[in-house]
Amino acid sequence: MTAGGLGEFGRIRCFFAPLAGPGGLGLTDDAALFDCEPGRRLVVTADAIVAGIHYLPDDPPDLVARKLLRVNLSDLAAMGARPRHYLLTTALPETIDDAWVARFAAGLAEDQRRFGVDLLGGDSVATSGPAVLSLTAIGDVAAGAEIRRRGAQPGDRVWVSGTIGDAGLGLAVLKGEYEALPAEHRAALSGRYRLPEPRTALGPRLAGIAHAMIDVSDGLLADLGHICAASQVAATVAAALLPLSPAAAAAIAAAPEMRAKLAGAGDDYELLFTAPAAMDPAIVRVGADLGLALTAIGTIEAGEGVRLVDPAGRPIAVKSPGYRHF
Ligand SMILES: [Mg+2]
Questions:
Q1: Where do the DSSP E strands lie in 171-293?
Q2: Dihedral (C-alpha) 280, 283, 289, 294: value to the nearest 10 degrees?
């Protein structure tokens, strides 16, 4: 396979077998085995990324690995699930050497420890095209406690964790924009783009509290639109209430109209959820327990669509509510 390299089996043995948990059987069997505790359901999600499209071929391989794992863990969190295991399939061109794979696996090892997941198996193939990396994450949730997109009800408040717009601004920073911004702000923003923080502790804590939930990957307004469409309701978001980091606030200080644009920026991987007002105290308690900002930014109403409004309640025109896949 790779001239002078370890080859497929060597790479599996050296780099991936050490990542396998008990269910992965050392990656020596045909398939993995794992149990699901009685009364719990498995939650499964997959994401694939392509070199040159979702990441740059010269991005640090450990960061590529960690982001790939984290975006999947974010999808589990958005269902209220706790992460358990994952499967990994790689299609790599000859130009990817063993050193790259070693660093990729080291990134996975670091985040496995951090998030309490292990590798069950997968596949590795050669390709004549760009590298394709596909990860399937498996979590579990108490049966019936899963939080879907479709449960939002008129009268619910709309909440979001953390801060919004950092990743979108971080991508702009990486492309050479916002050069006048202080270095620590630029680093904070680009860091949020390169390495999102999936809200794995928050998601399961919202069982019995949130009516509907999604993670912010396409853009806050677009993702809220997915909740509204699935729930057959409308939503209004107050632009002034969007939680911004100090770095994001500094970045848009000279252009307040950018606030609306941040509501359409993707890749933040925060959790966006709706809950009845009676749950306000419970939500505040969860936020305090986790040391994580949870901010009410709007309301769910009868009807359809998502509106962003100014402090006077006037609709703000939004050019792009979020990323469109096609
Ligand atoms: Mg998602």
A1: 212-215, 234-238, 271-275
A2: -100
Contact 287, 213 (CB under 8 A): no
d(CA 134, ligand 1 centre) in Å = 15
Q: Write out the E strands in the chain.
A: 40-50, 82-92, 118-126, 132-142, 157-161, 212-215, 234-238, 271-275, 294-301, 305-309
- Average pLDDT over all residues of the chain: 93
Which phi and psi angles does 41 have, rounded to 5°?
Answer: -115, 150
**From the CA of 45, how far away is ligand 1's center (Å)?**
9
pLDDT digits (tens, 9 = 90+) for 292-302: 999 999 999 99
At 65, the pLDDT band (50, 70, 90 cuts) reads: very high
Nearest-angstrom CA–CA distance, 160 and 48: 26
Judge whether 292 lies within some domain: yes
Whether residue 250 sits in one domain with residue 169? yes
In the reported structure, the alpha carbon of residue 269 is separated from the centroid of ligand 1 by a whole-number distance in angstroms of 8
Residues 85, 209 within the same domain: no
Q: Domain limits at 181?
A: 149-309
Span from the CA of 122 to the centroid of ligand 1 (angstroms): 22
Residues 22 and 98 in one domain: yes
- Measure 216 CA to ligand 1 centroid, in angstroms: 7
Distance 307 CA to ligand 1 centre (A): 21
* Distance in Å, CA 2 to ligand 1 centroid: 36
pTM (2 d.p.): 0.93
Distance 143 CA to ligand 1 centre (A): 20
**Residue 296: CATH number of its domain:** 3.90.650.10
- The CA 154 to ligand 1 mean position distance, Å, reads 23
Separation CA 19–CA 120 (nearest Å)? 9
- The tokens describing 306, both together, are 């998502």
Q: State in Å: Cα 234 to ligand 1 middle.
A: 20
Q: What are the tokens at 285? A: 């308690």
